[in-house]
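hey so i finally got around to running the thing on that chain from the lab meeting. sorry it took forever, my laptop kept dying and i had to restart like 3 times. anyway pasting the input first so we r on the same page abt which one it is
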Amino acid sequence: MDKLPFDPHNPWLELRRLTPARIALGRTGTSIPTRAQLDFQYAHAQARDAVHLPFDHASLSAQLVERDREYLLLHSAATDRNTYLQRPDLGRKLSDASAQALRDYVVAHPGGVDLVIVVADGLSALAVHRHTLPFLARFEEQMTGDSWTVAPVVLVEQGRVAVADEIGELLGAKMTVILIGERPGLSSPDSLGLYFTYNPKVGLTDAYRNCISNVRLEGLSYGMAAHRLLYLMREACRRQLSGVNLKDEAQVQTLDSDTGGDMKGNFLLGPPNA
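ok and heres what got predicted. didnt touch it at all, straight out
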């Protein structure tokens, strides 16, 4: 019986082009090839660097000023990065000095606002540096026509998600959105997360928030993220709630969303009129 001709085609290699996941790495004896091992170590180093990268709020605030946007610079109760990583609770509240500065601002600007946008470094300042301003540009484009009053952008160093609740409560805001660097993965050291809360106040749990994650060039586009966020905000104002009782049923755009693609139904809910 003749042997079958050798077929060098490996279907796994084709699948590698469709995902950043580590598949079809190959094998050298009982281990993986050197290139795959070096790639893994490089990705791990990128993730570690993202966690420890200092928040460049000076550059971000300068760019906000260039766009005629006011800002406030605050700090959480975590005094440094090591404290922040070891004491998550301190990252969820403002330092005494920052809380007082916000109270002083409210005295000078009474009346409350509809929306406050908070930007915090979280676990990846790299994500905030790369994606905050492009996302805000798309968000503001799509928000045109809504009559919400907006507070200055609040920058928080060493901040976690819940710090936005205290900020929103002190400012008397109806809604808060925090843009924060997500925990880096081995294929995504720069993923930006958006957390939205209606009627923010200290002590709320994650059940009262809506999350839109993986906002980056290789993930969820700025345009689609802005579209989903605005849907949640409009529905929250209509229903006066957010969190687990507010589902993302927005009509989402195609992968060409940033270039004017057609609107489709939410892929989680099936096609329109199904």
